[in-house]
Amino acid sequence: MNDPTQKHKAGLGTRSVWAGEQGERWAGATQVPVALSVSYGYETVEEWLEVALGRRPGHIYGRNTNPTVAAFEDKVRDLEGAEAATSFSSGMAAISNTLFTLLSPGDRVVSIKDTYGGTNKLFIEFLPRFQIQVTLCDTTDHEALEAEIAKGCKVLYLETPTNPTIRIVNIARLARASRSHGAVIVVDNTLATPINQRPLEQGADLVIHSATKFLGGHADALGGVVCGPRDLVSRIYHFREINGACLEPMSAYLLLRGMKTLHLRIRQQNENALQIARFLESHPRVAKVFYPGLPSHENHAIARRQMSGFGGVLSFALVGGLETVKTFLPRLRYAHLAANLGAVETVAGPPATTSHVESTAEERAASGIPEALIRYSVGIEDAADLIADLRQALDGLSGPAPG
To answer: What's the rounded Cα separation, in Å, for the pair 255 and 41?
Structure first.
């Protein structure tokens, strides 16, 4: 899809449909088949060795590579504009395999405080057990991040927008600061997707997705993927093939199918989320709305520069705190109360049961995440219906409205 000999480069919508799917097909199938075979046979040992040594294309064993999985990897690689990609059984497998590939005892990683809960657990619980130094900075304090980077670090790990506080980090600025100190810049792009943001174009070395979320879009397949330069991705692939956190073919097929409508879903979710954020900001029972498309958002200017859309996830706090949240959420008709995001259906919940379910209340507080925050992942429903649903749930809360 990115043939340098072609003058016209296909758009993201076309590439969402076609990238990774123009290779050889079994019996002329127009859709990528699900290759469920664990192993792949060869006529001669010589041919088998050529494939095993990487001298010719092919597959040996399902834990290493698979035709269906390879098509999924190539689609994400193309959309992110990367040289290579490798996939995993989940988003957390992608994150943990990447960090353990790049870091050794005595190394130092610099990151932000309010990353996704599983990522934060790696930073505060697992990496220190391997004598890896971890420094977490206030997420939007770019000066503090730059100062810590200047002290030396092997990896700078960023997430933007953050989950669930929806803060925005300036990728290009921090990439410039990191590159002069030799750090590898890793960006979790799950909430933005390559439709809204392409970190590699802004100086990142590696971009990570929990493909379970927006890439798949239908809440029916777990997966993760890392994209970047061939040499770095090859190292991560080698760690993964030995540790075994491989993406299984049926999930790869479901993710491929979901990605064909990625650009359409993201367009609708972007539009819905902005309308809903504006409505919530005007409602007297809502204390604060966190959405980078709002001029009131502290990082709105950065988001406008580095994103082409503001995403389908917002969060908000209600007047009245956690008890009000417990009353409000069950009143929603058009939202699953579940631990997921990025699906075609709207999904809502507090951090204690969603993004940071593995964390203690103290750990969430240290990350700057209020207990009474509601993460609202907007689906592709009609925005007017979602707003009406939110209105009836808010207006139905007991007691007089503030103000």
So the answer is: 27
